[in-house]
Amino acid sequence: MVIKTETVKAIVFDTFGTVVDWRGSIIADLSQWGEASGVHADWSSLVDEWRGRYEPQKDRVRRGEIGWTNIDDLHFEALCSLLPEYGLSNLSDAQRMHVNRVWHRLNAWPDAVAGLNRLKKRYVIGPLSNGNIALLVNMAKHAELPWDSIFSCEHFQRYKPHPDTYLGVCRQMYLEPNEVMMCAAHNYDLAAARSVGLRTAFVPRPTEYGPGQTTDLEAKDDWDVVASDLQDLATKMGA
Amino acid sequence: MVIKTETVKAIVFDTFGTVVDWRGSIIADLSQWGEASGVHADWSSLVDEWRGRYEPQKDRVRRGEIGWTNIDDLHFEALCSLLPEYGLSNLSDAQRMHVNRVWHRLNAWPDAVAGLNRLKKRYVIGPLSNGNIALLVNMAKHAELPWDSIFSCEHFQRYKPHPDTYLGVCRQMYLEPNEVMMCAAHNYDLAAARSVGLRTAFVPRPTEYGPGQTTDLEAKDDWDVVASDLQDLATKMGA
């Protein structure tokens, strides 16, 4: 029997939701900051609505309706448009920037750092994320993610699931598609990676979107590896 | 008195010569490999001549005489043209590739890893190197260089000292030029970085080119920091 993961030399990770808990981190960060700054709002609802703008915004870039725009800029546009309904129209420019940069201050899921440190000993590891370069570097410093390098869709000026993003990693690293594994908590990401030849690993994050999450609760295809978390992925990948 | 380095948030490093000892590493690697493989040659001379082709090759790219060509490809072209005079015309394709990839297997100067680990606690650190992405990632794995991210001239499709390379780091990281420090063992690199506003740190590597080195033995300008090595740089930068 051929083990399909034996060829793997590098593993790249979706970050938002797969490696870091964006929703929990943002609610905690902004609640604490709001408390200290005297700025009160329903941060949970704001975060959910903010994140809800994300796919439609990227779709506008994907369809070419607007030119390449990175995530920090998309986040800022969405944030500013949401502030009035949350009673936050009075935030200063510096405060808006601080709130927008909360995406640079996300915390890892409890298993992530230990799992990545194990995987790093055997594989090249990096994010392959729609996040922009500065965001991913700052997030890694904040959350102590031990990446070997940062692969950002900003490098490729394309958002996942465009094939150029997955194949861009292969090209930059001189690796064949079957030497690169995509790890994600989102089935669509793995389907796109598989369609261009990458290996795939699914890790469920059933509370990424909060307690009522209905999507991506389980693997929707026979991905090469299905692991319970990144520690389990390390075990299953022999690291 | 204003300390000009107080603004610094990220430090980027020239790699070949500044962080890794390319000449010593290559002679040792190929001598050992040649011994094991029954391939005999004057590796020291080959390395010196190989490296001698490097600036003229990059100049052809800089002048636009040839399109963007990365370092692995430039190295391979130069290597193949040098093999006959070293009696190595019979090397197989796999052997040529193994020899060419020696640039991915360079070792750090003795002070480098400890110095970088100290600097990483306080600053974002990365290479800003003419080396291509795969080379820099593989070199970091091999030499245990704890980069936060890889800044390669391949990302910018320009070789240093083009301003786009230094300013590209600033742009990607949302940093002002005076928030980024360039560290190099080569005065020309620092002059170019300073000309676009970066901070500068010189570290002499007087045996980079072997015992007879005549260039870059000392700082040729009043760089913001002159350190004896990367441990000393960490001390001088308060890390």
Describe the 3D structure.
- The structure is a homodimer of 239-residue chains.
- With 239 residues, chain A is of the alpha/beta class.
- The first copy, chain A, folds into two domains: 10-21 and 106-236, 3-Layer(aba) Sandwich (Rossmann fold); 22-104, Putative phosphatase, domain 2 (DNA polymerase, domain 1), CATH 1.10.150.240.
- Chain A has eleven helices and six strands.
- Chain A has helices at residues 22-37, 43-52, 54-62, 71-82, 93-100, 112-122, 133-143, 153-156, 163-173, 187-195, 230-236, and strands at 10-13, 124-129, 151-152, 180-184, 199-202, 225-226.
- In chain A, strands 3-2-1-4-5-6 form a six-stranded parallel sheet.
- In chain A, helix 10 links the parallel strand 4 (180-184) and strand 5 (199-202).
- In chain A, helix 1 (22-37) crosses helix 2 (43-52) and helix 6 (112-122) runs parallel beside helix 11 (230-236).
- The longest helix of chain A has 16 residues, at 22-37.
- The first copy, chain A, starts with 9 loop residues before the first strand and ends with a helix.
- The model of chain A has no long low-confidence stretch (mean pLDDT 96).
- The interface between A and B is medium-sized, with 18 and 18 residues.
- Chains A, B: This is (S)-2-haloacid dehalogenase 4A.
- Chains A, B: GO terms for molecular function: (S)-2-haloacid dehalogenase activity.
- Chains A, B: It is an enzyme of class 3 (hydrolase).
- Chains A, B: Keywords: Hydrolase.
